[in-house]
What we know:
Layout: H1 5-13, E1 21-24, E2 43-46, E3 50-53, E4 76-82, H2 85-93, E5 99-102, E6 106-108, E7 113-114, H3 129-135, E8 138-142, E9 146-147, E10 150-151, E11 153-154, E12 167-171, E13 176-179, E14 187-191, H4 198-203, E15 209-211
Parallel strand pairs: 1-2, 1-5, 5-8, 6-11, 8-12, 14-15
Antiparallel strand pairs: 2-3, 3-4, 6-7, 9-10, 12-13, 13-14
Amino acid sequence: MPWTRDQMAARAARELQDGFYVNLGIGIPTLVANHIPPGISVQLHSENGMLGIGPFPFEGEEDADMINAGKQTVTALPTTSYFDSAASFAMVRGGHIDISILGALQVAENGDLANWMIPGKMVKGMGGAMDLVAGVPRVVILMEHTAKGEPKILKSCSLPLTGKNVASLIVTDMAVFSVNPQQTPCLTLIDKPDDVTIEAIRAATEPDFAVAL
């Protein structure tokens, strides 16, 4: 069986290291906050002006004024600080965030990322996505492997790009790929659920990939 969303988030959380400043994108990446590995301390950053985000609150304990960039209610920690959007984006653009975990509509084998719009559909704008992929040294993509049966990992993206050659790791419900545009193939399978076969992954992935399990 493929990983559940929580299992995907837990696998992505294994990329975190003690002392990291971490930005979590909207959607599945927000679940990473509930799966910080024991023994490490990280500071979760939200573009709307919060550093030091705790796990999601229990039902009945929500504070409507305490939200992340996706407008989900969150909790605070003893280390939490608050600031305006200008300071928040200065942290991102200044290279002070160690890793960003983002969702995606499409990812190309060379690390190109499309995650902000589908032409013809109304969108609010790119938000902080462009800043996050340009100003953060390591970008992990956390998404489902397919959409309506079609691959989301492609030879090249057909949707408008958020950034070029920005993804360094792709975590899906079926596989974990490292991304290296300097090698052929660019993708290397480094982890997968026990019950998902390599053949099934190849069938659901457009580009070729190496295997290092």
